[in-house]
Design brief:
73 residues, mainly alpha, 45% helix, elongated
């Protein structure tokens, strides 16, 4: 199982050094660089949910007819 965690939830062993603090700021900036904001974020989330709904296996309908087969010929 893959477990995702945020930058802030990672365990720390004591106070941060200046170097670690600088690296953490860079990491936060990098993580937020491609994040969508505002209306674009709302539309992206709607599209994500719409695609997930279409691809959901439990909602797919089973075709009433089987595959076409050629009998004899």
């Amino acid at each position: 199982i893959i477990q995702y965690c945020s930058i802030n939830s990672q365990a720390r062993s004591g106070p941060l050094t200046v170097r670690e603090r600088r690296q953490l700021l860079k990491l936060r900036a990098y993580a937020g660089y491609h994040r969508k904001h505002g209306v674009e974020a709302v539309l992206a989330r709607k599209l994500h949910h719409k695609r997930a709904k279409v691809n959901d296996i439990s909602n797919r309908q089973i075709p009433s007819q089987g595959r076409c087969t050629v009998l004899g010929g």
